[in-house]
Amino acid sequence: MEGGAIAQFIPLILIFAIMYFLLIRPQQKKLKQHQSMVAALRRGDQVVTQGGLIGKVSKVKDDNEIEVELAAGVIVRVVRSTISQVVNKTEPVKEKA
Q1: Structural domain harbouring 89
Q2: Which H or E element spans position 21?
Q3: Signal peptide span per the entry (predicted)?
């Protein structure tokens, strides 16, 4: 009887393991990549927001907000987490020796 009860739970355990490796784990990996991309934003990067607006980062204000220049003289405040991708990454400023 005890062997039969354990055998009934094996399919449930397998389904959970398959769901973890096919859905949960890749989503967590994608979330970590997005968080590191957003944390690495700096002035001069060209970005795309989740709304589809393309602009250049003009100022990194604080932990949660940046200013993006959409056109000449048009600057908007954007929440960092709404940046979907970085199109062009600027090179860091090299220090003079």
Answers
A1: 42-96
A2: none
A3: none
Domain count for the chain, please give it. Answer: 2
Which CATH number is 58's domain given? 2.30.30
Residue 88: the pLDDT is: 81
Contact between 90 and 41 (Cβ < 8 Å): no
Kindly state whether residues 6 and 26 are assigned to the same domain: yes
> For residues 68 and 50, is the Cβ–Cβ distance under 8 A?
no
The DSSP code for 96 is P
Question: For the chain, how far is it from start to end, CA to CA, in angstroms?
Answer: 77
**Predicted confidence (pLDDT) per residue in 42-78, tens digit:** 899 999 999 999 999 999 988 789 999 999 999 999 9
Domain identity same for 84 and 58: yes
Burial 60-73, CB ≥16 within 10 A → b, else e:
eeeeeebbbeeeee
